[in-house]
Amino acid sequence: MALFRFAGPLLGTCQSRLADSIRGPRRYRLDTLPFALGWDDVRRLIATAASDSEIDLRDRAILMLLAVYGLRHREVTGLRLEDIDFGGQQLRIWRLKRRQPQVYPLIPSVAEILRVYIEQARPSVGFPEVFIGARAPRVPLSGIYEIVARRLRPLGIELAHRGPHALRHACASKLLADGMTLQQIGDHLGHRSAESTAIYTKVDLTALREIGEFDLEGLQ
């Protein structure tokens, strides 16, 4: 349409406001592919927090929760100690758009890193939230975007989303590659609409081939 607006007055070929009556091509929200991390890249990302330092233990637990459960950043920062049932091997997540908690099986690798962080690295503070900032004042984390982005930068991976959403996309893509239905994936991610799930899982075959097995190869 910009061509019509420019060429019309200049060449005398278009009637006034003709360009405004011409519609551009329709664009759909689902036409843009999400940029999901492959599962090998997820392992590489988690491996950047492989030491036993307080920050690495905390960040490794956060990254694994994001990747395995596809959590939103506020669902991670809002996680409380009482939401982790080590004995019953359950994890309760208070989804932002639901009034009731969503209960997940607490897989061993996630349970182990959470246990180690809580017992060995988490500061002794009176807050119920699991994740606490590493610097004074020792208060619950309010955001984790920079944690994920900082861990991604050295890997040189180009992504549309460099924060927690990158791992949410990776989780959805991995579940799709494993043969789960959109409804099952939506339930796992805490979606209430199928359209939301479709946006996360619209990936090409190349991306699906790169994802690999849904495990962390011994990473704790």
From TrEMBL:
Domain Tyr recombinase residue range list: 32-213
SUPFAM superfamilies linked: DNA breaking-rejoining enzymes
Single annotated GO MF: DNA binding
Record has Transport as a keyword: no
Short name of one Pfam family: Phage_integrase
GO biological-process terms attached to the record: DNA integration; DNA recombination
Entry keyword set: DNA integration, DNA recombination
InterPro entries to which the protein is assigned, alphabetical: DNA_brk_join_enz, Integrase-like_cat_sf, Integrase_catalytic, Tyrosine_recombinase_XerCD
Protein name, as recorded: Tyrosine-type recombinase/integrase
